[in-house]
Amino acid sequence: MTLVEQDGRPHGPSRGDRSVVDWSAAAQIAGRLARPGPQASRAELADLVEGLRTAAGKAVPHVLDVTRMTPVAGTPETLGTVHVVDRPRWARANTEIMASLTTGVTEALVGESGRVPQATALVGAAQVGSVLAVLSSRVLGQFDPYSGQAAAGAGPGRLVLVAPNVLQVERALDLRPADFRLWVCLHEQTHALQFAAAPWLADHLRTRAGDLLTELSASSRRLAEARLRDKLVAVGRAVLHAVRGEGTTLLDGLLTPEEQDRLADVTAVMALLEGHADVAMDAVGPRTVRTVRSIRRKFDARRDGEGSSGLDVVLRRLLGMDAKIAQYRDGAAFVRAVEKDVGRDGFNAVWASPENLPTAREIADARAWVRRVHG
């Protein structure tokens, strides 16, 4: 299964960046460790790739209709280029995104004049590459506003669809392929529209995430300089909290209260984006996706870990997958509550400016957001 090359390929970042991670090596490691996915004939693969590209195109007018949003520049057809990829290519492409989002982290760790030893950069590459390889089997699609042309300000971004994962889920849940592929694309094209309707959003998220990562890097530096016993206690406590479900991710056990607050605000924006996309993908109704209710029921059961092994549950917590699932639900509840109060057009005020984005407290209290934004 290979990338459809019509719009170009997502590649990993080039070697030679001054960074705590050798991103070129991370891309190679991620690509090598990613599992290939389910077996399929050449004809099945061709049908899958074409079906996903067709679904991505069909999803755009439905998303525009149900969200009542409009791209600020260009035409609806330019929400983003579409790439259908296998797992290794998804993993490699995400090293490019991570490299873009971690600019400035090196200075926080070693200072402006410091140097990162090659061995350190390779250890970072091994860690990042290994995690991306695991995640590559769990992601159905992703809209990337940061890499390639989008990063240079020359395009809206790219939609990446992970073909083997779509095939695996539709087989495992016994879903109607055309319906499921369109349903997935409705979610991802909603993300594309979010960034097209709010062109400030990508830079806002990059800045907030970059500031947080810089702070976390400083904390990591302090941890690295601590005594071995203190390191083991801190990391062990973090792992224990994550496995028990007492924190949303492994990071929760390592953050200061101030860092937790900043992370909560970034997470609130991600909850908004994911919840809004989830609401949109269901709002089209059975006229567009005939089996949408059945898909949602089966998919939610899968998200809840039905049939998962104990190891898989632990892995999901350590990698933050349970936190991601909570984002979908919390964000969707916020969107529905706001729309019930002020309607869909009233909800769309959220895309007007960074000041209109919900805080962590408002995600859990939609009326507070309505009072602040609408008076």
In brief:
By secondary structure, the chain is mostly helical. It is built from 16 helices and three strands. 38% of the residues are buried.
Task: Chart the SSEs and their pairings.
Blueprint: H1 23-33, H2 42-67, E1 81-85, H3 87-101, H4 105-110, H5 118-135, E2 141-144, H6 148-151, E3 158-162, H7 163-172, H8 177-197, H9 201-224, H10 228-244, H11 257-283, H12 292-303, H13 310-318, H14 321-347, H15 360-364, H16 366-374
Helix fraction by DSSP (H/I, runs of at least 4) = 55-70%
Strand line-up of the largest beta sheet = 1-3-2
- The number of helical runs is 16
- Uncertain stretches: 1-12, 149-154, 228-250, 307-321
SSE order: HHEHHHEHEHHHHHHHHHH
Protein name: Coenzyme F420 biosynthesis-associated protein
InterPro entries: CHP03883_F420-assoc (IPR022454), Zinicin_2 (IPR018766), Zinicin_2_N (IPR042271)
Pfam families: Zincin_2
How would you explain this protein's 3D organization?
The chain has 375 residues and is mainly α. The chain has a domain at 17-198: Zincin-like metallopeptidase, N-terminal domain (Lysin, Up-down Bundle). It is built from 16 helices and three strands. A three-stranded mixed β-sheet has the order 1-3-2, sandwiched between helices. Helix 2 crosses helix 8, helix 7 (163-172) packs across helix 8 (177-197) and helix 11 crosses helix 14. The chain starts with 22 loop residues before the first helix and ends with a helix.
Supply database-style keywords.
mainly alpha, single chain, 375 residues, 16 helices, 4% strand, 64% helix, three-stranded mixed β-sheet
